[in-house]
Amino acid sequence: MSDGLDPLNSINARRRTYTHFDDCDGLGTVFTDLKQNSSGATAVLDEADGVVEVATGATTPLDNDECYRESAEVLKFENSFKVVSRIKFTEANTDDANVLAIGFQNAPVLATVLGDAGAGPRGTYYGAMIYKVDGGTKWVCQTSVGSTQLTDTTDVLSTSADFVDFEIEFQPTENGGTYGEVSFKIDGVHCTIDGSNTGERIKHEIALASATEMAVLSGIKCGAATQEEVLKMDYIGWQAYRS
After folding, report:
1. Which of 55, 155, 173, 205 is deepest in the core (most CB within 10 A)?
2. What is the DSSP string of 70-108?
3. What are phi and psi of 213, to 5 degrees?
4. Mean pLDDT, the chain cut into blocks of 10 residues (243 residues total)
């Protein structure tokens, strides 16, 4: 039997990769809520193709209320992997929302996934994110290895109410596995540094020593009191090569 007709090919391919793709047609058990306000929640909407609403909470909404969909710690800076999402949001109050479009982070905890008052990601973590902050109008890319952080603002506006595709990819580099490279895409296009005359792509080279496991997550955080913020998610997922 030729390899092309071998039914074990697909099984062997699955052995080599660890994959989860959530089409948001149900809540399932892979992602859980990480939320501040007790009325914050994720819920499946009555919309075509499957859409999950991520809401910060409508009962007494407060500044810095937040809600994320969070996986277990399933990724690590060692073998190649990719994370993806497709989201949209409409800000309740001008540009006040803090939004994590897609990212992965070790030990995510409330108030520091994205900091209060537009502070952005916490100062020490392992992971990478595409996000916007309270007062910001463009997507930002960050990679963090402990307290060593690389941060670049893109030239892509974050104010659209349309669905947008996000992707972060990690690849170990060809130098003995001690370094890796993180790249970012929005709507299938490599992110470039805002203001670059040459359209310089955002690529972060990182050291892999002391890497630890990271959770995949996406969500939204209030930037003002009395205004609930809501994000809609069409899909979220990852694919990683096994060790």
Report:
1. 55
2. EEEEEE-BTB-EEEEEEEEE--SSTT--EEEEEEEESS-
3. -70, 150
4. 57 84 96 96 95 96 97 96 97 92 97 96 98 96 98 94 96 83 98 94 95 97 94 97 85
